[in-house]
Specification:
Blueprint: H1 2-24, H2 33-48, H3 52-65, H4 67-80, H5 86-92, H6 98-106, H7 112-124, H8 130-162, H9 167-178, H10 182-205, H11 209-226, H12 231-244, H13 250-281
Helix pairs in contact: 1-2, 2-7, 2-10, 3-8, 4-6, 4-8, 6-11, 7-8, 7-10, 7-13, 8-12, 9-12, 10-11, 10-13, 12-13
Length: 284
Amino acid sequence: MNEEKDKTQNDIDAEIHNSASDSKENESAKKSYGEVLKDQICEGQEVYNKKTSSIILSSIAAGLEIGFSYLLICTLLYFFKDKVEKDTLFKLITFVYPIGFILVILGQSILFTEQTSLLTLPVLNNKRGFGSLFKIWGLVILGNLIGGILMGVTLIWVGPKLEIFDLKTIEEMANHVLAPNSLTIFISAILAGWLMGLLSWLLSSAKETVSRIVIIFMITATMAFTGLHHSIIGNIEVFSGMIISPNIEALDYLRFQSFALMGNAIGGAFFVALLKYRAFVYNV
């Protein structure tokens, strides 16, 4: 049984290697499925090989950097609040929401949702175990949440001081994120995790910086326009609202964060990593 399993794994590894080699012979051609898969597995392996301190610091940086999306969201809501209808106002978020993601991804900080499928692929390819996966996920989530909380506290203070938004704007944004019930947040987060996993996959196919920016903008703008729940930027939105509003309790924050994290993880790990990997394996 073990010999057969090892042979199957060797066949899979060989097919990935051969697909990547064939594509490299013609650099002007688009990347093959095997080459994209190999890039994703190798990139995921690089994260596993990092030191724990490096992962945490990079994750905190991602949590801080994605906060610039929140800064722009609150500023936009405050600036246009008396100029456009409320429903339209939340759709305008689409144009500023991607900024933080562009900063994080091009800056190569470690963001949980973007790394979900990347970190799952080495496990599916038998290069890492589930214990290692959950450990890395835990470190990345912890760092992202700490960075987001620090950014949220900073913006709660600096926003009113600069008169670019007020505390009421923060509360309105938090209530908007918390409005759906738990099941809706969970399903919404699965779709968001799915999109973020696809984002990572698509970026492996893109070579130029401009193309990468367009892809990041396209995916994250879709999330913003449709109101899908992202656990890391949502962490800043809901935590900030909890700090300044007596109407938002710690249980509201925990409810949102737990369902959003689970949904994002399932969306990236199952709908992208597992399906993409198994689609390749079944062809071997």
